[in-house]
Amino acid sequence: MIENFNKLFYNYYGGFMTFCAKLKDEICNKEITRIEMICELSAMLRYDATIQKDKITLTFENGSVARRVYKDIKNIFNISPHIIIRNQKRLRNKQIYLLELKEQVSTILTNLNIFKDNKRVDIRRESLDSPEEMVAYVRGAFLVTGSMSDPSTSGYHLEYVFSFKKDALFIKNLLYEMKFDVKIIERNNKYLVYLKSAEEISDMIRMFEAPTSLFAFEDIRIYRDHKNMVNRLNNCEIANQEKSTITGLKQIEDIHYLEENDLVDLLDEKTKIVLDYRLKYQESSFQELADIISLETDYKIGKSGINHHFIKMKKLVEQHKKNDK
Can you tell me whether residue 96 is helix, strand or coil? Predict the structure, then answer.
């Protein structure tokens, strides 16, 4: 039966896969222990199953997750869920996978710690004895309630969506214990537990042991960080160029003021050289001006020297304007 479901999965689940779908696909292909299967299934059925007295129904849009649940139930309880695949053509064509369990319903729910004495019970922290069980539980919850934005096209965002606040709080506290700084908000009568830190999302993918997705995510992070750095440098360069242009125009205005008022001869010869070259190279920075003067004349000067001469010029202009007043 598992082989038949594999054929159905590969026949129906084709086409373009999102980053999140690829991540879940990789998670679902990882071999895990029996106790991890139980923890995963406990989370999956608790947060995604429709439970009736004599039937459990699970609905998936991701074929890999449906296959994982089918396989785990088969391995743990030796039961083959009934498989239904439906085509949904609303907005876009996609497949919906339904798994129905009609055998040993009470036994399954009891063993997965979801029902006890025919009453639904809340999951308790002490029921997860080891770090491996905690990881398996949050991994199972992610497979059925989680989503992640494509890191190459939008901001970094990973979330779990729950119908009940107590479920969201339990996962939030569990992840917080694992050192993830998750937040929780209410939206459209749902409760979202989410991460926006790229570093913590990377840590979670690593925790899920999905190396291919992790490498892809890190490659995207490196590319985006590099792109942002280049943009910042370009913006800084443009800002510096604009600043140099504005400064140069003000200095040219001061030079013309000195010329109009016959004040240039009050300056020393080296300052006059700098002012002459400023008139020739009006948009050059101080460093560029220093390099040109050093190359074309016998006067070797640096950026600070250029600044010193313009300070002398500015003081002369200000003093003359003050005296005029």
Answer: strand
DSSP state of 170: H
Residue range(s) in the chain whose domain bears CATH number 3.10.28.10: 2-209
At 223-274, the pLDDT tens digits run 877 777 777 777 776 677 777 777 778 888 888 888 888 888 888 888 888 8
Q: What are phi and psi of 147, to 5 degrees?
A: -150, 160
Burial of 291 (0-12, 13-18, 19+ CB in 10 A): middle
CATH class of the domain defined by 2-209? alpha beta
Q: Is 189 left (phi over 0), alpha (psi -120 to 50) or beta?
A: left
Torsion sign (Cα): 60, 145, 152, 215: negative
Q: Contact at 8 Å (CB) between 278 and 251?
A: yes
Give the C-alpha separation, 90 to 260, whole Å.
78
pTM of this prediction?
0.68
Model confidence pLDDT, tens digit, residues 188-202: 899 999 999 889 999
